[in-house]
C-alpha cells in the first residue's frame, strides 16, 4: 500500500510506501510515517504519481486547474473531409493502394462524390502524387 504525506517543514507532498517507518524529504527533514497524516492512498506505485500531483495542487490552491490540465485531451477531427481522406489515402506506398483507399474513404464519408471531390483528394500534395 502506498500513500501521500506532506512534509511538516517544507509543506511538499511526497509519495511513500506505507510499510516503511521513515522517509527523508527533499528538504532533508526525516519524516516518521506512522504518526503522519496520509492525505491519499494508492494500491500501486503507478497510481501514486498522479495522487502526489493532486495533493501538491491542492496544497498550492489550484486543484481545479490541475484536474483540467490532467484530463486527457480529445483529438478533434478535421472539419475538412478532403484532408481526412488525404491522410488515410497517403498511407499505402503504391499508387493503386492510394487510389483504392481514396475511393473507399470518399464513398464512406460522402456516399456520392463528384469529380471535383475526386481531384481535390488525388492532387493534394500530401498524397505524394505529382503526376497529372
Short description:
This protein has about 130 residues and is an alpha+beta fold.
| CATH fold group of the largest domain | Rubredoxin-like
User: Mind telling me the C-alpha Rg?
Assistant: 27 Å
- Gross morphology is rod-shaped
Number of strands: 5
Q: Which structural category fits the helices and strands?
A: alpha+beta
State the CATH architecture of the largest domain.
Alpha-Beta Complex
Low-confidence stretches: none
Text of the CATH class of the largest domain: Alpha Beta
Widest sheet: strand ordering:
2-1-5
Fraction of residues in helix? 40-55%
Taken as a percent bin, the fraction of beta residues is 5-15%
Largest sheet: 3 strands, antiparallel
How many domains make up the 3D coordinates? 2
Look at the structure and give the mean pLDDT: 82
- The helix/strand order is EEEEEHHHHH
Oligomeric state as shown: single chain
Number of helices: 5
Report, as a whole number of angstroms, the end-to-end distance.
66 Å
Amino acid at each position: 500500500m502506498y500513500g501521500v504525506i506532506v512534509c511538516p517543514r517544507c509543506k511538499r507532498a511526497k509519495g511513500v510506501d506505507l510499510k516503511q517507518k521513515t522517509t527523508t524529504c527533499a528538504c532533508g527533514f526525516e519524516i516518521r510515517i506512522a504518526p503522519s497524516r496520509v492525505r491519499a492512498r494508492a494500491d500501486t506505485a503507478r497510481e501514486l504519481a498522479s495522487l502526489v500531483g493532486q495533493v501538491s495542487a491542492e496544497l498550492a490552491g489550484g486543484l481545479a486547474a490541475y484536474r483540467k490540465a490532467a484530463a486527457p485531451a480529445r483529438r478533434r477531427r478535421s472539419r475538412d473531409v478532403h484532408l481526412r481522406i488525404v491522410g488515410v489515402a497517403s498511407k499505402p506506398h503504391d499508387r493503386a493502394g492510394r487510389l483504392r483507399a481514396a475511393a473507399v474513404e470518399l464513398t464512406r464519408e460522402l456516399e456520392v462524390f463528384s469529380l471535383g471531390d475526386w481531384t481535390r483528394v488525388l492532387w493534394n500534395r500530401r498524397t505524394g502524387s505529382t503526376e497529372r
